[in-house]
Amino acid sequence: MDTNETMSVDILAEENFTTTGDECTNELPTVQEYLDGLTLPIAIIIAATVLLSIGTFSIFFKNAYHILHRTPKQFKTKSILLLTIYPLITLFGVVSVSVPRAFFLCDTVMHVYFMICAYVFFSLCMQYVDGEDALIKSTDSQTFSLRTPPLCCFVPLFKRAPVTKNRLRFVRMLIMQLPVVQTALFMALNVVFVEDYPNFNRIILYFVPMIVISILLGVWGLNILVRMLAPLYSDLKLMGKYFVLQAVLILCRIQPLIIAAIVSSSISHCAFPNTLQVQKNAIFQLCLCFEMMVLSCWASLLYKSPSIIGPG
């Protein structure tokens, strides 16, 4: 009788262990655990991201060489800083795929650098038009408008107005808050990620409204800037340069939600160390590295010709 009971308990314990092992877990593996359980699809993804990163770096060095030799001196530094975002993202994409526990730190670096690039883009635009004072003097029409996406629905009563120092300062502050606010929020989230990872996905929900509001205000300021300058300086290709920069934000922030939904509904096997989070991140970084290489090629065409100052 005792033997039968003991066997029953062992069988139940084994079934419970198997069930628990098959369930998805939020725990992220160490590098050693990750390498020990490395599967062929993940290995192929890592190799593909490395190759895409090398390709993107090659495009970047070619673009940087061209800018250093053909672009007017005052535009060189900021143009290279803007083009650096594409290889930087692919580099941290490789790190994120290779070291699962570093994925949020890598995401933070990508995110913060984009916010810095947003202000660099504003400064470059001001250099293109020879400064704020020159812009104000050259625009004698109603070219400033707050009725631009994504907040155009909230300011329907504002009409087009002349460009003034205060209005340009308002746009500058909208864009300048991006690197400041986003860096502070993501630094706090990184502390939470390290100290309380099991509850990280719940705690981050309290940060999301502040992150979204800050991004919306910054994108609003960039849209005001580009829509104000693009018609006046068509040779600068500002709309295209802005789009290849804004695409980085869209791909880094919206695309993960789409991939997560697809992966969650299509992948059932997520045994440790290849958890659902690891698989989602690997597929996302693979897509992102490919997209950054495409955007880098596009940006090279936009920054290829020396910039011309003056109304189009």
TrEMBL record:
Keywords in alphabetical order: Membrane, Transmembrane, Transmembrane helix
Transmembrane segments: 38-60, 80-104, 110-129, 170-191, 203-230, 242-263, 283-303
Subcellular location(s) of the protein: Membrane
Any one of the GO CC terms: membrane
Repeat as UniProt keyword: no
Membrane-topology descriptor: Multi-pass membrane protein
Pfam families: Solute_trans_a
Keyword DNA repair: no
Cross-referenced InterPro entries: Ostalpha/TMEM184C
Main location: membrane
Name of this chain's protein: Organic solute transporter alpha-like protein
